[in-house]
């Protein structure tokens, strides 16, 4: 049996206003080569299954870094059978108007999966530009975002108006 390596395929990037999806096709050193041995085969499928079953830590970066689900197993299996390893990642791009206050140090960005719900702060220090990219989103989930202005005394404003981001399914 002769195994032939395919030449790397081009990387195609599609950008939308609020979301971006990247589809990468590659062979030899690619995301489906979970053991990094230069080939996608049954060993990678077994690793994907073990990660999915939480028998070993999830190190895959196919749907989202650290997410090992049945989609990841199917993607690795398809690649091992000679198909294409399709890697999908999503992000939400947020933009807002700067505060008119003169002593603003930056902004805090908060996210929830419930409208008006309990928000979690995404940044560790105030964001200085009036934009933020959340690359930790997962496919098929709807997120709700708010921002606050933080002044030079570290006093935070009330939440901004909430915006919704619907992340597409791969």
Structural class: alpha+beta
Question: If strands are numbered along the chain, what order do they take across the biggest sheet?
Answer: 6-5-8-9
- Number of helices, counting only DSSP H or I runs of 4 residues or more: 2
How much strand content do the residues show?
Answer: 25-35%
- Which regions contain 5 or more consecutive residues with pLDDT less than 50? 1-29
Q: Whole-Å distance between the termini?
A: 34 Å
- Overall geometry comes to elongated
**Total beta strand runs:** 9
| Residues in helices, as a percent range | 10-25%
From the alpha-carbon coordinates, what is the Rg to the nearest angstrom?
Answer: 20 Å
Mean pLDDT over all positions: 81
Q: Sheet with the most strands? A: 4 strands, antiparallel
Q: What count of structural domains?
A: 2
Order of helices and strands: EEHHEEEEEEE
Summarize the structure.
The chain has 170 residues and is α+β, with helices and mostly antiparallel strands.
Q: Which structural traits does this protein have?
A:
disordered N terminus, 170 residues, 9 strands, Immunoglobulin-like, alpha+beta
Note the topology.
Elements: E1 11-15, E2 20-24, H1 42-52, H2 70-80, E3 87-89, E4 92-95, E5 104-112, E6 120-121, E7 131-134, E8 142-151, E9 163-166
Antiparallel strand pairs: 1-2, 2-3, 4-7, 5-6, 5-8, 8-9
